[in-house]
Amino acid sequence: MPEGHTLHRLAAQIEDLFVGRRWRVSSPQGRFAAGAGRLDDRVPQRAEAWGKQLFVHLGPDIWQVHLGLYGAVSFRGDEHFAGAPTLGAPRARLEPPTVRRDEDGWVVPEPPRGAVRARLRTEHGWADLRGPATCAVLSVPEYERVVARLGPDPLRERADVAHPDAAQAHAADPDPGPSGLETFARRLARRRIPIAQALMDQSIVAGVGNIYRAESLFLERLDPSLPAAELSAESVAALWRRLGAQLRDGVAEGVIRTLRPEDASRHDPARRHWVYQHQGSPCLRCGTVLAVRELQGRSLYWCPGCQG
Ligand SMILES: [Zn+2]
């Protein structure tokens, strides 16, 4: 499943390519025909990600997308329509399109391939959404109810408390509200579930998936089965900062790389993760054989030697 960094890249790309321009919206597959009709021929004003959700604002209507396990958006168009060709679940790479234009000068899209839930079109190209878990048009109150259920997203943090300059910049704010870290800490403190399970709960922290939870717990030397409420304040703060740093790297690089090349084994310099999907091989930090087990239907990877 795409983790939060992919949704933030998607929001940025939609912001670049569509926001402030009139777009055409259709549902070639038909399942989103009514919603597409509400969004069509309007000017999107803002795109944002919150955890694993994308929201595109068009005044009183908000387009909500959750990619789920299989969703992806592909982008095709002319030289003014540049960006990642696909964001979301991996897809076959397509050749650049042969650009043809209609009488208005708009790029003519290729016929839809497969089940395209929503097609977005502007002058310079088009984007196809396939396989989302959620694709809906929300009213403002509905949007507010959705985001009220989401935990803090480390990528949306206004003031990263770990960064002294940022803390100073917000010192003059008369009502800064609870920081993401404060909310994260408060929600963990109420739960007895294992911290590894808590990190996957989008109402506790939004945007973390299976890879970031395994890698952040490893790097913070935290036992995945420790009850969430038993983490020290220092561990909670360090974990929050770690997740933020990892997600920011993911946005910058477009892939999840938690193991820097200089830390990777010289036998496998391309390795990207410390523990994720490396069960059965020795821990790069302590040599213990890495383990995997099922937790709430998802595989949890960790080092039984140096975590906890
Ligand atoms: Zn270890």
TrEMBL record:
Keyword DNA-binding: yes
Keyword Hydrolase (UniProt): yes
PROSITE patterns the record matches: ZF_FPG_1, ZF_FPG_2
EC number: 4.2.99.18
Catalytic activity: 2'-deoxyribonucleotide-(2'-deoxyribose 5'-phosphate)-2'-deoxyribonucleotide-DNA = a 3'-end 2'-deoxyribonucleotide-(2,3-dehydro-2,3-deoxyribose 5'-phosphate)-DNA + a 5'-end 5'-phospho-2'-deoxyribonucleoside-DNA + H(+)
Domain FPG-type: start-end pairs: 274-308
Region feature Disordered, mapped onto this chain: 163-182
Domain of life: Bacteria
Pfam annotation, one family: zf-FPG_IleRS
Family to which this protein belongs: Belongs to the FPG family.
Name assigned to this protein: DNA-(apurinic or apyrimidinic site) lyase
